[in-house]
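Q: Can someone sanity-check these two? First one:
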Amino acid sequence: MLIPILLGVTFITFALIKALPGDPVLSLVGERARPETIDSIKRELGTDKNFISQFIGYISLLSKGNLGRSYYTQRDVAQDIIEKFPNTVKLAFTSMAIAILLGITLGFISAKNKGRPTDMFASLIAISGISLPVFWIGLILIYIFSLHLKWLPPSGTGDIRFLILPAITLSIPAGASIARITKATMLEIINEPFIKTARAKGLKENVILFRHVLKNAMIPLVTIIGLDFGSYLNGAVLTETIFGWDGIGRFTMEGIIKRDYPVVMGCLLIGTSTFVLINIVVDILYHYLDPRIRVTKQYN
């Protein structure tokens, strides 16, 4: 299904971009440029043709593995993406690791201490993490740790010091979602008959929670983790823009602002491909996490 999905996303994105107000040529040369110059550049870029002709031309380029060239830099879009994608991967992995550690820990503590002050405190943290806007979290962290304490750089791409603030900012909403799903799933599993059987056999509560409850709670968690990780690899536009992180998200934003259509299309296609592939990995993980899927497959 990857090919029809990519074709559908390409067509819809191409149509929406062309429907946007503004002309990339005017953004490139300015509104005071001579009409002859504007017409010449439009012919050179191919934007003087009708929508169908432009779309067919773009699909022809894609079939050759070519994402086109930037209107502004004349650099190959694929080359730019290859250079920036590792930064996004680094940010995505770090953010996801923090989110998983934070979310599962909070969710586990909250489920284990249901109705107690510890549960209320953990739930308050999770609700706050989901409710607070990402850009607000990022600006607050910059104000505290960069401007006030001067511990970390406010923006840029470099060593681990530049990675800490954007990774924390990006991990908070995902960690909060993981915490809430962990708690809800664990509380649901605790009431299952096999947990009552485990208690009747005399197993310790911590053994039951870790070996039986948390293990079975991983199936819905894998879904949310996969979706969040796929969106991170697409490029966290707000986070990368706020912190000046040189990744796919910031590259996409620059392309949108400049009406650099090949850049926007290239980034979105790479993002879509990554998202679909991550979902395929999640489906494969289901096979190993849930024995019922293997049994059903063998039965069929």
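And here is the second, same format, sequence then tokens:
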Amino acid sequence: MKRVLITGITGQDGAYLSEFLLNKGYEVHGSAHDLSADKLWRLDELGVREKIALRDVDMTDEASVNALVKSVQPDEIYNLASRSFVAASWNAPLPTADVNALGTLRLLQAMRELCPTAKFYQASTSEMYGSGNQQHRQDEDTPLHPKSPYAVSKLFAHWMTINYRESFGLFACCGILFNHESPLRGLDFVTRKISNGVARIHLGLSDHISLGNMDAKRDWGFAGDYVEVMWRMLQQPVAEEFVISTGKTHSVRDFLAFAFREVGIEDWTKYVKSDPKYLRPVELQELSGKNDKAKRVLGWEPRVSFEELVTMMVRRDIERLTPQT
């Protein structure tokens, strides 16, 4: 039985990855800085909480990270720990960098010293592209030009992972994942804000949704599909970087239209308000990934369509908000 360590296990990706690896027969160990009950709801929804060895670990503390790696001695490490809400990173750049950038470095150094034969996956992000190659889909060779403290911190982690591979011969790779959503997404994110807001309007619990930039376009996929490709990367003979995306873009307005249509509302404009407080200091208008390498090398393609993703999220939020009899 292989032993796996997932940092940031209480997040959306950590929960889906846990479920996936448990089904593969792995012994799953997971860490997070906050293991309070209200942070474990994703693991509870998937029914995997009791099957995981959970550990409270602070990624900003070197001794804590070292003790984690020494204790678990994992065969595979998936570094999903992150302060991942992009908009908040402008107001908290130092803690964002400490967790996302230096936290990754602490983990890589611990792996190098304590379990150098393990395989390491770093959760990189399409936000690193920033304004690079805006006229075409982004791939592994597209220039990187991050536009937020979050993206800059992730770029440090991305290149440090590659550096440790090239410097010390570690099996360390990066998945450059484009936006991936699910019913397990946090309410701070625009997709879940929409699905939850539509559910509340449908049930008469609210009368509007407040949003920022509705013209932004993103390449949205299903998180449950994307965690599988993380695992596939670590099963390859050579560590490499891969763009993971659907290759299709939709605007926030498209997401709104599909979400409201799910509850029988065609004209959604009367239910949505624009609020400048949700605008970012620098807006990225469009991100769209080219996943040809993942298809060719990993044999992976996304299964859940954009429409199916939106439907799934709206229906789940309606279920959550409907009183149980």
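A (reply): Looked at the second one. DSSP finds ten helices and 13 strands in the chain. The CA atoms of residues 89 and 149 lie 6 Å apart.
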